[in-house]
Amino acid sequence: MRITWAETDAERGDVQELFSHVFTGIEDNAVPLVAYDYMYAPLIAQIRDDGDRLVAAAMTCRTQVAAGSVLASRQGLPDRLGVLPLIDKHSELDLLAVDDSHRGLGYGSALLDHLESALAARGVRAWFGNVTVNLDAVSLRMFYRRHGFTVLPDFEPLPPLLGRKWHGPNLAAPQFWFYKRPGAGPRVPVDAA
């Protein structure tokens, strides 16, 4: 299995298509175009089969709150949420999908490991995500725990990480949140600053 980065709009279109196939109700622009990398700083890992068909992908990036702060700062507006000093110290595991025909082969684990290594090398100190109520929460809870994430109880809010809240109050409550410090090993708390 070879993991590469989705660095072109065409590759990201394939990733968007996979995510749309696996998840119901996903936004048409869930995967940012290259032109918006300055806002989201995405890492999009992909695995293709021998015929170059995308079979698995994962994306981690800045949160909407952080992307909004970046955009506001480019327009000369103040950082009201105070996230810009920590903009590159956090990342949200936004989406991870494996095509049905390739599940159970370790692709999801390989993508997580690949992303974690890249995030640790970048100096990211808080990596987090959530599982929504329409997904298989039981197996996903075990999956993220197995990868060293602290997994919160159902419907418990994400605590401040790095001393900041990374989601606005309008976010619908997910089934559960998970978080970790990349490269720090299993269940190491994310520091306050």
Instruction: Report the end-to-end length measured between terminal Cα atoms.
Output: 37 Å
CA-based shape:
globular
State the helix count.
5
C-alpha Rg (nearest Å): 16 Å
Spatial order of strands in the largest sheet: 1-2-3-4-5-7-6
Number of strands: 7
Assign the CATH superfamily.
Answer: Gcn5-related N-acetyltransferase (GNAT)
Mean pLDDT: 90
The poorly predicted ranges are: none
Beta-strand content: 15-25%
> Within the CATH hierarchy, at the fold level, what is the topology?
Aminopeptidase
CATH top level class name: Alpha Beta
Number of domains: 1
Main beta sheet strand tally, sense and closure: 7 strands, mixed
Gross CATH architecture: 3-Layer(aba) Sandwich
Structural commentary:
The chain is an alpha+beta fold. The chain has a single domain (3-180), classed as Gcn5-related N-acetyltransferase (GNAT) (Aminopeptidase, 3-Layer(aba) Sandwich). The protein has 5 helices and 7 strands. A 7-stranded mixed β-sheet has the order 1-2-3-4-5-7-6, sandwiched between helices. Strand 2 and strand 3 form a beta hairpin. The longest helix has 16 residues, at 107-122.
Provide the fold topology.
Blueprint (H helix, E strand, L loop, with lengths): L2 E3 L3 H14 L14 H4 L2 E6 L5 E8 L2 H11 L15 E9 L8 H16 L3 E6 L5 H10 L3 E2 L24 E5 L13
Parallel strand pairs: 4-5
Antiparallel strand pairs: 1-2, 2-3, 3-4, 5-7, 6-7
